[in-house]
UniProtKB/TrEMBL annotation:
It comes from the Bacteria. Signal peptide: none annotated. It comes from Paraflavitalea soli. The keyword Repressor does not apply. This is Deoxyribose-phosphate aldolase. Catalyzes a reversible aldol reaction between acetaldehyde and D-glyceraldehyde 3-phosphate to generate 2-deoxy-D-ribose 5-phosphate. It is found in: Cytoplasm. The lineage of its organism: Bacteria, Pseudomonadati, Bacteroidota, Chitinophagia, Chitinophagales. The keyword Cell membrane does not apply.
Length: 224
């Protein structure tokens, strides 16, 4: 299925180095990944390394816990756009979600979506599905679809549970076809990656991207 085209090749550890970002970008260009996802300070560098390729540069906003004040997230998003990020992966305010404060969630995300879309960039909201109730996932699908996001993303990878087939299926059921799904968190094998795609994910956030692509090749030649 050419799984590489679904993958955001991801490196978000707090000790990320420029050499690691260079390697990440080289691998992304070589394998044909959809994007790299790097910490905000490395957006400009990643754009430089990927110049002339079709690989997009994504970065994270309000990462990893999402409880930064709205103005701080907006400033992060605006800076990421200036630096050249093609896609913004924004962690929602889970404190507000758990408190039922949907008004805050709407007011937080709308300026980011407006700024990104004006600059022809994409927005993915990270809802941390592994620690939400089903009804909270559904609530997020409705709220963020109405706000105009491009993707709803399952996880940061920092919670105790990452992506699951069940969460992706639930999200796909309650999102319009115009909103895509990015699954992330704990995706380390081709088999699991394919399950998530079959469930409705159109993008995968992975740090084990090369192993996943290698697994696809092995599977197609009877290696599994």
């Amino acid at each position: 299925m050419n799984i590489a085209r679904y993958i955001d090749h991801t490196l978000l550890k707090p000790t990320t180095s420029s050499d690691e970002v260079k390697k990440l970008c080289e691998e992304a260009a070589s394998y044909g990944f959809a994007a790299v996802c790097v910490p905000p300070p490395f957006v400009r560098l990643a754009k430089k390394y990927l110049s002339g390729s079709n690989v997009k540069v994504a970065t994270v906003i309000g990462f990893p816990f999402g409880y930064s004040v709205a103005a701080a997230k907006q400033a992060e998003a605006e800076q990421a756009i200036v630096d050249g990020a093609d896609e913004l992966d924004v962690v929602i305010n889970l404190v507000a979600l758990k408190a039922g404060n949907t008004g805050y969630l709407e007011s937080e995300i709308q300026p980011i979506i407006d700024a990104a879309h004006q600059a022809q960039r994409l927005v993915k909201v990270i809802i941390e599905s592994g620690i939400l109730l089903a009804e909270e996932i559904i609530q997020c699908c409705t709220l963020y679809a109405d706000a105009g996001v491009d993707f709803v993303k399952t996880s940061t990878g920092y919670a105790e549970k990452g992506a699951s087939v069940e969460a992706v299926q639930l999200m796909r059921k309650h999102l319009p076809s115009t909103v895509q799904i990015k699954a992330s968190g704990g995706i380390r094998t081709y088999a699991f990656a394919k399950e998530l795609i079959d469930a409705g994910a159109t993008r995968l956030g992975c740090s084990a991207s090369v192993a996943i692509v290698t697994g696809e090749k092995e599977s197609s030649t009877g290696g599994y």
